[in-house]
Amino acid sequence: MAKERRFIAGDVPLMTTTLWDFPSQNYGDGKQGDTNYVGATPSYVIANLLHRYTDPADIVLDPMAGSGTTPDVARDLGRTPLAFDLQSSRKDIEPADARSLPLKDRSVDFVFVDPPYSTHVKYSGKPECIGELDARDGGYFEAMEVVIEELHRVLRPDRYLALYVSDSFQRKKPFVPIGFELFAQLRQRFTPIDIVGVVRHNRTLMRNHWHTSALEGNYYLRGFNYLFVMYKEPSPGYKPRKVGAPVPENARPPKKSGAPSRKRRPYRK
Ligand SMILES: C[S@@+](CC[C@H](N)C(=O)[O-])C[C@H]1O[C@@H](n2cnc3c(N)ncnc32)[C@H](O)[C@@H]1O
Known about the structure:
The chain is α/β, with parallel strands linked by helices.
């Protein structure tokens, strides 16, 4: 791990490895989204993505915005939010089905999506809710295929999409590697940039009896979420725009003048 931490703003650490672990759901003294919303995304995750993969004023789409974490973070970082959900919880989240968004082709600069993970959480209960579809019978993946196609349609080329998801395990039911399955679906249309593991700190994991049951039943509790970062390729001949998190000035090591280059030690088994 890095010896010294770098920050995007306030207490939001700029992550430099593929293992992300945050102290809480929300950064700073403010509130992003609603921590009481079951399934809310940790706002640190979205802040790190926007810092790396977007420019100021870029349009940031969340087609399953839930309690509104993405639009809140987007505004904090000076980006332009666009948020939809089947069940709108606030005025700035328009009701829409993520499989058919009221958006033009190639009209947004970044997509963040945290879909339901099979039937683990009850959302609106509407028949169109993807959280009503069990990942064990295929309907879930058929629906997600259409969501991914729609997100590819509305994203501009030479831009990024991130999908945050967990696998599905329920007692006495087969394990479903949702992460691997969705990653394979994403790869049909996008180029993978990276896969991050985000440590989960939900309330379930605080309860002792869940850990006892996991030992007795010889299964594991979900300890991490996948974060897939994908890229939509531009057409041939197009000059890609430059993105990349600006490195804070104080984070650069001082330049050594005239110092002899260090010899590499031979590798020993
Ligand atoms: C994991 S939650 C998103 C949480 C959100 N990122 C937040 O921080 O609050 C998944 C969301 O997907 C929404 N959803 C499910 N099926 C949908 C569909 N077909 N179209 C749009 N939204 C959908 C649910 O209503 C729920 O709010």
